[in-house]
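This part of the workshop introduces the protein records we will be handling. Getting from the letters to the tokens is the skill we practise here. The record below serves as our worked example for the rest of this section.

…
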Amino acid sequence: MKNVDDLIASAAELADRGLSKGEIADELNVSRETASWLVERSGAATEPEPRAEPDGPDDIHVDWNAIGSGGKRLTYVGRALADLLMETNGEADVTVGIEKAGVPLATSVSRELETTLGAYSPAKHQWDEGDLEDLGGGFSRNFSPVEGRDCFIVDDTVTSGTTLRETIDAIRSEGGEPLACVVIVDKQGVEEIDGVPVHSLINVVRVGEQ
């Protein structure tokens, strides 16, 4: 992905495949607002023209395809994420991956830390129309339960922290204890969410922001 037109084209392709706006946000590693803007722009013309209107939402697109497309590279990054978690957070029973991108990363982390593997599907995957707050996510029954267990949470990026907060709340609602979160890229410089520390391999800082 090199420019906004590429993102608009990708959003159009994903929308044509039937993905919700929330899933598009997840696939492109952008915020919900940016996903909506991209989908709306993709329907404006067959080929996006140079933008004469104001810029879209303030966001940063993260493309980690070079990691995700290589099994060995994904394993190495998973080891690095596991190392971040081991430094200061003790031991967990379950490593919970946030679907979709967080699950393969969590698989590598859980192997490294010798935990079981959980998977959480956030509400944004159901989001297309209506109020996102009225929708709910859920844990996959095909993976490890979190009830009564200490949990690490793994995702690829932090955009606003909403999905991590939702997952933390969901674990607590199920009777589990979230110990820490870890991601590849943090767009916001988040250090903790609801008392749970957040670790990242890369922290993005917008230079010149007031």
